[in-house]
Amino acid sequence: METWKTYLGVLAVLLQGPAEGVQRTQVSIYYSTLCTDSITFFSKQLWPTYTKIGSIMDVELVPFGKTKQKLPFDGTNSFECQFGPADCYGNIVQSCAVSLLNNSDLSVKFVACYFNDPYSPNRVLQCSQRFGINYNSIHQCATSKTGFQYFHQMGEKTRRLSPSLYFIPWVVINGEFSSENESQAQKNLLCLICDNYKGQMPAGCQT
């Protein structure tokens, strides 16, 4: 297995952005932290694809999945996650990270790192240290009402989907969902992103 150091070395070259005026392929991923299919997707599809063609991708991460929530939201922990309390904790941590970082590249790196060992109690600290992210900010967010608020916002995004998701991870390309794209994303995300990119193909699309 390739090391994280190798991955990051490749990313330093790749993440220089597309040609001026060319829009990146937008990829929105709706998922849940302890969903086996989500874990597989991040490790087998998203991260390998991102290391090759991250420069032409604009990734939005929405950790909520099929969580049930008592509405209207009153600022408290009113969530029931599909895979239990640990799933909720992971979703809230990642909601905090995505919201606080407000940086697609760092968010993808942090979440991909988290998914490499999602059951480890030290994963948040390890991934924060690896990428120079403020661990205390994420930890404080995830253990406070701020984390509930960010998680609620992920739920709002998920509830606005049309059609509503019935499977996770749910992958939306350039703002539109199709069952064909969903199926291909699970098998060959790299090809799907390259096929939907309108600019000059990077080397990663030709492998």
TrEMBL record:
The record's InterPro entries line, in alphabetical order, gives: Interferon-induced_GILT
Q: Cellular location of this protein?
A: Secreted
* Signal peptide (from-to): 1-21
Please list every transmembrane segment annotated in the UniProt record, as residue ranges: none
Major place of residence:
secreted
* Keyword list, A-Z: Glycoprotein, Secreted, Signal
Q: Kindly indicate whether the keyword Nucleotide-binding belongs to this entry.
A: no
Instruction: Please state which protein family the record places this protein in.
Output: Belongs to the GILT family.
The protein, known as: Gamma-interferon-inducible lysosomal thiol reductase-like isoform X1
Species of origin: Limulus polyphemus (Atlantic horseshoe crab)
Q: Which gene encodes it?
A: LOC111089487
